[in-house]
Write a structure and sequence with these properties.
Layout (H helix, E strand, L loop, with lengths): L1 E2 L12 E2 L17 E2 L6 E2 L2 E9 L3 E8 L6 E7 L5 H12 L12
Antiparallel strand pairs: 1-2, 1-3, 4-5, 5-6, 6-7
């Protein structure tokens, strides 16, 4: 799916559009630099996307099912900017050392 929001400028109406659509169905903005998200059923590594939980200018979070452990539902965080990988790694390093019922657990 394509979200009407130019990754370079942030301009767009936020409407969801089908993959391959050249312009937004709501505002007619070009979707050349739109946010491209995974659709339900897509495979990301050994996970199958169930639904998108949310997205922003830097990334998206999906509800996924593990293909290695069917029935195990997890959240998968994706970044749009390769330069922010280090920031995600730091976040997960901190999470590994914490344990609380309201904090997410880090798997990989």
């Amino acid at each position: 799916m394509l979200i009407c929001s130019d990754l370079r400028t942030g301009v767009g109406c936020g409407a969801i559009n089908p993959n391959g659509t050249p312009t937004c169905g709501r505002c007619n903005n070009p979707l050349r630099y739109a946010i491209e998200l995974h659709d339900p059923g897509d495979l990301i590594g050994h996970y199958r996307v169930q639904t998108m939980i949310g997205h922003g200018g830097f990334g998206a979070v999906y509800a996924v099912e593990s293909l290695q452990q069917p029935g195990l539902l997890l959240a998968l965080k994706e970044t749009f900017d390769p330069a922010s990988i280090r920031s995600l790694q730091d976040e997960f390093t901190i999470l590994q050392g914490l344990s609380h019922p309201t904090l997410p657990r880090y798997y990989e």
